[in-house]
UniProtKB/TrEMBL annotation:
<feature type="active site" description="Proton acceptor">
    <location>
        <position position="106"/>
    </location>
</feature>
<dbReference type="GO" id="GO:0036055">
    <property type="term" value="F:protein-succinyllysine desuccinylase activity"/>
</dbReference>
<comment type="function">
    <text>NAD-dependent lysine deacetylase and desuccinylase that specifically removes acetyl and succinyl groups on target proteins. Modulates the activities of several proteins which are inactive in their acylated form.</text>
</comment>
<dbReference type="InterPro" id="IPR003000">
    <property type="entry name" value="Sirtuin"/>
</dbReference>
<dbReference type="GO" id="GO:0005737">
    <property type="term" value="C:cytoplasm"/>
</dbReference>
<keyword id="KW-0963">Cytoplasm</keyword>
<feature type="binding site">
    <location>
        <begin position="172"/>
        <end position="174"/>
    </location>
    <ligand>
        <name>NAD(+)</name>
    </ligand>
</feature>
<dbReference type="InterPro" id="IPR026591">
    <property type="entry name" value="Sirtuin_cat_small_dom_sf"/>
</dbReference>
<dbReference type="InterPro" id="IPR029035">
    <property type="entry name" value="DHS-like_NAD/FAD-binding_dom"/>
</dbReference>
<dbReference type="InterPro" id="IPR050134">
    <property type="entry name" value="NAD-dep_sirtuin_deacylases"/>
</dbReference>
<feature type="binding site">
    <location>
        <position position="56"/>
    </location>
    <ligand>
        <name>substrate</name>
    </ligand>
</feature>
<keyword id="KW-0808">Transferase</keyword>
<feature type="binding site">
    <location>
        <position position="53"/>
    </location>
    <ligand>
        <name>substrate</name>
    </ligand>
</feature>
<feature type="binding site">
    <location>
        <position position="117"/>
    </location>
    <ligand>
        <name>Zn(2+)</name>
    </ligand>
</feature>
<dbReference type="GO" id="GO:0017136">
    <property type="term" value="F:histone deacetylase activity, NAD-dependent"/>
</dbReference>
<feature type="domain" description="Deacetylase sirtuin-type">
    <location>
        <begin position="1"/>
        <end position="231"/>
    </location>
</feature>
<dbReference type="InterPro" id="IPR027546">
    <property type="entry name" value="Sirtuin_class_III"/>
</dbReference>
Length: 232
């Protein structure tokens, strides 16, 4: 039975109404990355950063999982081999769509992290800079998001799964941010068949064996159906 590792990015949540980062009118056209997605930006202006993620949290709460999220949950439930979803997304649409075997490599909006003692707790809808940690009481709460310059979460588990993968698919990610953009090369080295599912070829699109181009709500259910029908 084939083991499948799926990397997802903002494109899978786009049709749920969540803005992507690098579209012409996307989040990085509206905000400076350095201001809202780096430890230095948080040190300079924590209110701005916390407000940015409060707005993302509200957008995620107002959104619903789409057919692509649900298709990946169906794949996990019905495929006989292992299925792991590694998402760069900080929304919770994969889990609300039914995925269980899931890694949030860039963190999660619904989690808060203490910068002093590393305790984690459920983030309130409206975090405030200087919120107290419920464990050590330091005024050091921050969004549990991996910022540029920080190490993504669970890299050992991810590389182990990629090393055992027979199929590696990347869905709705532009291939601009490492280490995620390097997973296709790693999967190819490990002998996996590699597939890119996107509206258009990504920055690393040439490295994939195959591409399926189109909106995720159409392409992902069709791909899942084909895998389940093949039964391999
Ligand atoms: P991007 O905004 O860079 O890329 C989104 C990708 O989704 C693009 O390649 C689009 O073509 C594609 N896309 C858009 N709508 C789609 C649809 N309906 N169906 C299929 N594909 C679609 O987002 P990411 O690649 O996820 O990190 O960005 C990676 C990381 O950069 C993010 O996790 C975030 C960001 O800065 C941090 O903040 C640390």
């Amino acid at each position: 039975m084939s083991n499948i590792v799926i990397l997802t990015g903002a494109g899978i949540s786009a049709e749920s109404g969540i803005e992507t980062f690098r579209a012409e009118t996307g989040l990085w056209a509206q905000h400076r990355v350095e201001d809202v997605a780096t430890p230095e930006g948080f040190a300079c202006n924590p209110e701005l950063v916390v407000d940015f993620y409060n707005a993302r949290r509200a957008a995620a709460a107002a959104a619903a999982p789409n057919a692509a999220h649900k298709a990946l949950a169906r794949l996990e439930a019905e495929h006989k081999g292992k299925v792991l979803v590694v998402t760069q997304n900080v929304d919770d649409l994969h889990e609300r769509g039914g995925s269980c075997n899931l890694v949030h490599m860039h963190g999660a909006l619904n989690s808060a992290l203490c910068a002093t003692c590393e305790h984690r707790w459920t983030a309130p809808m409206e975090m405030r800079a200087g919120d107290a940690c419920p464990s050590c009481n330091a005024a050091a709460a921050r969004p549990d998001i991996v910022w540029f310059g920080e190490m993504p979460y669970q890299m050992d588990l991810i590389f182990e799964a990629i090393g055992e993968a027979d199929i590696f698919a990347a869905i709705g990610t532009s291939g601009n941010v490492y280490p995620a953009a390097g997973f296709v090369a790693e999967a190819a080295r490990a002998g996996a068949h590699t597939l890119e599912i996107n509206l258009e070829p990504s920055a690393v699109g040439a490295q994939f064996d195959k591409a399926l181009l189109g909106p995720a709500t159409k392409t992902v259910p069709a791909w899942v159906e084909s895998i389940l029908r093949a039964g391999a």
